């Protein structure tokens, strides 16, 4: 049986389940998950190798309709850049929903020449299943999708079918990575993702969008990993909110993040965190490049 290898971009609006799908496919949490926009800020690649195929997935930031600062404009451009030189695209939408941001994501696909598969996610949450068929007919009319797949990333419904059609879509060829690889992301980048996930989960609705995580030190020994992480905020008043009363909020963020990192690196983790003011970092190209959000294209 000939080997197959190809790249697949996962695209869609925020909070439709892109990161959940990638983590499920890879079998590890390499992309942050939270029920808030902008949880994913970089193009994160996950590698799935089974039987005779290797699929290299890219989890893109959710496409935002309102891009008011350099950070959001960069997230949109990086998501679109991930569509270049791929073999297939998976667009994800939420069952029974179609928003303006879904329309914007679809608009980005108009020039794409490769097969585009529509994954209708979260079908397990639909109580009245008879509503699905009219919805699927409606979205089918919006674009010449190669196939529309009703699915659930959390309940693993129809994920095998997704892999089946993607394997058929990618070309024959040697694998780009060894069979044990799950990502090409540096470990410290994934650690920053997992810390930022806890910022998003633990803080108020707006504050996480003005925070970033920079790993200043990552040292690994035979027995444990030591990590020094700096949490950037855009305004002085935000420092106290993140630290919390008697440092309780920062401690909770650190404890939850440490557990996630330990699960990923499979070692005890010593995590130290500092909160630092970096005014207007989300409009500073140098800071965005330092954080790995803006590429050097």
TrEMBL record:
Location of the Era-type G domain: 4-172
Designated name of the protein: GTPase Era
Pfam families in UniProt: KH_2, MMR_HSR1
GO BP of this protein: ribosomal small subunit assembly
Segments for region (G1): 12-19
Superkingdom field: Bacteria
Segments for region (G5): 151-153
Subunit structure as annotated in this protein's UniProt entry: Monomer.
GO cellular component: cytosol; plasma membrane
Membrane topology: Peripheral membrane protein
Key word Membrane present: yes
CDD domains found in the cross-reference section: Era, KH-II_Era
Predominant cellular place of this UniProt entry's protein: cytoplasm
Gene expressing this chain: era
SUPFAM superfamilies, per the entry: P-loop containing nucleoside triphosphate hydrolases, Prokaryotic type KH domain (KH-domain type II)
Its job: An essential GTPase that binds both GDP and GTP, with rapid nucleotide exchange. Plays a role in 16S rRNA processing and 30S ribosomal subunit biogenesis and possibly also in cell cycle regulation and energy metabolism.
Highest classification ranks of the organism: Bacteria, Pseudomonadati, Pseudomonadota, Gammaproteobacteria, Thiotrichales
